[in-house]
Amino acid sequence: MKLAHTKTIHFINFENRPLNPNLCQPRKIRFQFDNIPTLWLNNSSVLTHFFNAINLFVPAFERFMVRAMKNQLSCIKNTNIELPIRGLIGQETTHGQTHKKYNRILEAQGYKFKTALIITDFLFTEVLEKYLSDKMCLALIAGFEHLTTIFACIVLESNMLANANPTMRSLWEWHSAEEIEHSGLAFKFLIHLDNRYYIRALGGLLGAAIVVAFILIGMVLLIIQDKSLNNKKILSDLIKLLFTDYKFIPLTVKNFIPYFQVKYYPQSKDLYQYAEKVFQAQSSPRERFDVADFVQN
Fold first, then answer.
1. Domain for residue 161, yes or no?
2. What is the residue range of 203's domain?
3. 3-class secondary structure for 225-256?
4. How many domains does the chain have?
5. What confidence score (pLDDT) does residue 230 get?
6. 20 within some domain
7. Cys-Cys crosslink for 268: which of 104, 134, 184, 197, Cβ 3.0 to 4.6 Å?
8. Which Pfam families does this one have (predicted)?
9. How many separate helices (H) and strands (E) can be counted in the chain?
């Protein structure tokens, strides 16, 4: 992907600590979701609910990933990978807790989705974790993470959140940047424990399919409740999201296909430029304050 020359605005919602892929220590955060408009991105139901749909299912996905990775930590034989994997687990835990907090805001706005979340938890706990092997669960996670890294790069490169509500922009830039910071780690964890190609390929395909399916389900569920399906802007914004302005479909396909090469290995350094715009070493005086001011949610 070609880096867009755009300016990233930082808000006082997360610890502004420089990128450190060798540690991936979770940042302290203090998001306060006050006065968030219903359509917080470009007054668009499609664009807003693309992110809201992801938000719905992030807590369940993160809980699954944390359980599966913790279950395999004792199998790590290389201490060089153990520390960043523990950092990855910490970051995913914080992501899940924070997005769960925002789901309560969506509920307060009148959206109904509890049944969908119950079904999601059932899928992970009673189906995937019971009937798939530990290694296949890790392969699913590697697929999840590869796809979400692509999404994070698209969001940051295109400056997609430029006109978003400031708190929501900050939330998704923080999450996207940390996805890039720990990109490739789940893959490395998997091949450290099981380097069989079919496990990686099948898990990657299934993991990506699960993510895409839940995003589509979530978007339809929320857009229907906005009663805006017949709005002409829906089709226009959907085309912008998928094909023209943000090109999620062509860019995702282009960047996901290499994952299935037999000798594929993540080149995460090529992506760090996107996250560095968010996690700068220096903050402006308005943004600088003691880390003790943060509260871990």
1. yes
2. 45-278
3. HHCCCCCHHHHHHHHHHHCCCCCHHHHHHHHH
4. 1
5. 67
6. no
7. 184
8. Metal_hydrol (PF10118)
9. 11, 0
pLDDT of residue 286: 33
Q: Which two tokens stand for residue 92?
A: 């995913």
**Residues 265, 267, 269, CA angle at the centre, nearest 5°?**
155
Q: What tokens were used for 194? A: 């099981």
d(CA 142, CA 196): 14
Dihedral of alpha carbons 204, 245, 236, 227, sign: positive
Other C-beta atoms lying within 10 Å of the C-beta of residue 153: 23
Q: How far apart are CA 30 and CA 44, in angstroms?
A: 26
Say if CB 112 and CB 224 are below 8 A apart.
no
Q: Assess contact for 279 and 174: CB atoms under 8 A.
A: no
Residues 6+ apart with CB under 8 A from 5: none
For residue 41, list its beta bridge partners: 164
Say if residues 117 and 190 touch (Cβ distance below 8 Å).
no
Tokens at 286, concatenated: 């308005």
User: Closest Cα to residue 207, out of 155, 256, 261?
Assistant: 256
Rounded Cα–Cα distance for residues 139 and 145 (Å): 10
Could you report the average pLDDT of every consecutive run of 10 residues in the chain (297 residues)?
45 87 95 96 96 98 98 90 96 98 98 97 98 98 98 97 97 98 97 97 98 97 85 91 98 98 95 92 37 34
Which pair of tokens denotes residue 125?
């706990």
Rounded-to-10 torsion of CA 278, 284, 289, 290: 70
What's the CA gap between 197 and 176, in Å, rounded? 28
14 three-state secondary structure: strand
Does the residue 76 lie in any domain? yes
Token pair for 126: 């009673």
Collapse the DSSP code of 268 into the 3-class scheme (helix H, G, I; strand E, B; otherwise coil) and give the result. helix
| Cβ neighbour number for residue 254 with a 10 Å cutoff | 12
pTM: 0.91
**Nearest Cα to Cα of residue 63 among 106, 105, 19, 97:** 97
